[in-house]
Amino acid sequence: MTVLGNSVDQAKPAELFGHPRGLSVLFMTEMWERFSYYGMRALLILYMVNYLFLPGQLEQVIGYQTVKSGLEWLYGGARNTQQISSDIYGYYIGLVWFTPILGGLVADRLLGQRRTVYLGGIIMACGEFLLMDNSLFFFGLLTLIIGNGAFKPNISTQVGGLYAPGDTRRDRAYSVFYVGVNVGAALAPLVCGTLGEEVGWHYGYLSAGIGMLIGVVTYAFGQRHLPMDELTRARKNKTAHQKLDGDEWRRIAALLVLTALNIIFWGAYEQQGDSIALWADQNTDRTVALFGYAAEIPTTWFQSINPIFIFTFTPIIVWWWARQSRKGTEPSTVTKMAMGVAMVGVANLLMAAAVVIEGTEHSSWLWLVLYFVFLTLGELYVSPVGLSLVSKVAPARVVSLMMGLWFLQMTLGGFLAGYLGSFWELMPKVDFFLMIAALTLAVAVAIWAFNKPLKPYLGE
Fold first, then answer.
1. Which pTM value belongs to this model?
2. 167-177 burial, b for 16+ CB within 10 Å, e for fewer?
3. Residue 252 is part of a domain; what is its CATH number?
């Protein structure tokens, strides 16, 4: 197996459904990696609140008292189980999206994208298996954080590497790739979540680890269809150590501005795994009638609604953008992002309405479905658009590093998600949802205001 090949660059790559076959390889690899990640995430907050941090269990967890004392020192007071769990959830999500900066730097300067993907995938599988032991909980989280940092930016940048500069298929390719992300994310709560809730928490983590290993094997078998590493190309062209010019620095600055503005979006978006998961567990009537029988929807299944809507809505959104493009009315990248952030604000306004109309005891599960409709539409107008933008605008010599920096918004958004989630039991629920809505709507206006100043630097 050749780790650093260039078959994609030497000849026209084989195609499947109008795209290079390498897109299918990356689609399947990312699908299994996201199955692993979202399977673990679907369990995390419930595992901590309902099992791991209860008396009789928390004493087994190495480092728990140290982490608890550190959080109470940081926030200046005692923290209950739910607050500590939300804090840990937020810091985990944040660090998962911080380490891609380091992973991108390692790939751009030392190992190349392919070797770094292998390294990250194997480390992540080990992290899932460590979580099967209660005492190694924090070690498992740390291992997952490191592995994700190596894997995530380097799988995403390879999608852009399949296409020549100016190839109009690139944006659509990232939308297709994003469907792969969400197929894995949709299956994960149904498989890992059900095993964790109904059979045993550790079986959920076992299935997530196996999924990650399948992703690594898939990637290995598809090597010949993948593009040359940017590090290999730079060394071949003797450009690896050239300094960035003024235009390249301006493009980097434009990307960093958008990165900073999207932090609030991810802080609100990640509530689906924190406060929204708790709402589904504690405040939602999850009973449905099927063929005359009443059944209760498992809490973790609600984590599948967002990814199911992703691959349901993506073809419609892509068709809509293509139609707007033909008419010359397609919004700019920045405008799309502003629209996406605003939609997340609307999703939280709907949850506030649910509290006002139905209260907090037995709210209908249909309110959560409506919430996820707008959350998903917002995500489609922000996330794949951003991935494509980085692959087009970032200088090739630092593209993995810039993808890592783009993920920095999710790092800070994850920290923010945990902080906001810690108010869940301290605020009236309607005020909590209105707070999230106000933050996102204000940021949507701010992003829209940057549309005209940033346009020249974004190649639009």
1. 0.71
2. eeebbbbbbbb
3. 1.20.1250.20
